[in-house]
Specification:
single chain; 229 residues; alpha/beta; seven-stranded mixed sheet; 9 helices
């Protein structure tokens, strides 16, 4: 497995019952079962092709009895009888991710632990977590093959944990560590935001709300980049 999947695997608790939504060849559940970290997982995908790949890899590993393969959108493939306590969703946009979680929530499915890796829209994912009484307990910002990834582990709590605007935007635990990838990512994002703002201001019909949002994000980024300890 690559660094991204290994980091996700580290966020899964010992003995968890896992649903890997949008599974990638079932690499993650296979590795988790083979390592003895978990005994059971569901590998689920909306498309038949990736699911066939997952099924082949699971069979090759001899793990058909421990990893179920299911075809369907999002979390509709999961039943209460599965007793899933940990959901992993990686490699999709944050908006789609929260739509999947919301649909499950509305159907009475609440999962104790979420391990998430949105490839865009990370602040929206953190806002969803706050709004649904989840606390971010682990985060990592990694770089692999020219891409940066934010990985988030959250658990359900009884008392809501509020996050500041900066914590929603960057990640509360990512902000605490600010590893080298943080500065690499956000220097690049600052340049992107500044160019975007210039283009928005050139438009004949200015989108004032969008402009205000980008200005706010630029301020957040500049504050964190200037605060290098």
């Amino acid at each position: 497995m690559n660094l991204r999947l290994n980091t996700l695997a580290q966020m899964v608790d010992q003995g968890a019952r896992v649903a890997d939504i949008g599974t990638d060849h079932a690499y993650l559940p296979i590795a988790l079962v083979q390592s003895g970290k978990i005994d059971y997982a569901i590998a689920s995908d909306i498309a038949q092709g990736p699911l066939d790949n997952a099924r082949d890899d699971i069979a090759q590993a001899g793990l058909e009895k421990q990893i179920d393969v299911r075809l369907g959108a999002g979390l509709v493939t999961i039943t209460h009888e599965d007793k899933i306590d940990t959901v992993v969703i990686a490699g999709m946009g944050g908006k789609l991710m929260t739509e999947i979680l919301t649909a499950a929530w509305q159907n009475g499915f609440q999962f104790n632990t979420l391990v998430l890796e949105p490839n865009v829209g990370e602040p929206g994912v953190r806002k969803w977590l706050v709004d649904h009484n989840y606390q971010v307990v682990a985060e990592d910002l990694i770089e692999e093959a020219g891409h940066t990834y934010e990985l988030i582990k959250a658990i359900q709590v009884k008392t809501p944990v509020k996050l500041s605007s900066a914590e929603i935007f960057f990640g509360p635990l990512i902000l605490q560590t600010k590893n080298p990838v943080f500065y690499q990512k956000w220097h690049g994002q600052l340049a992107y935001h500044q160019k975007l703002l210039a283009n928005l201001n050139k438009a004949k019909n200015k989108d004032t709300e969008h402009i205000k949002q980008i200005e706010h994000e630029i301020t957040l980024i500049e504050e964190e980049l200037n605060d290098q300890g």
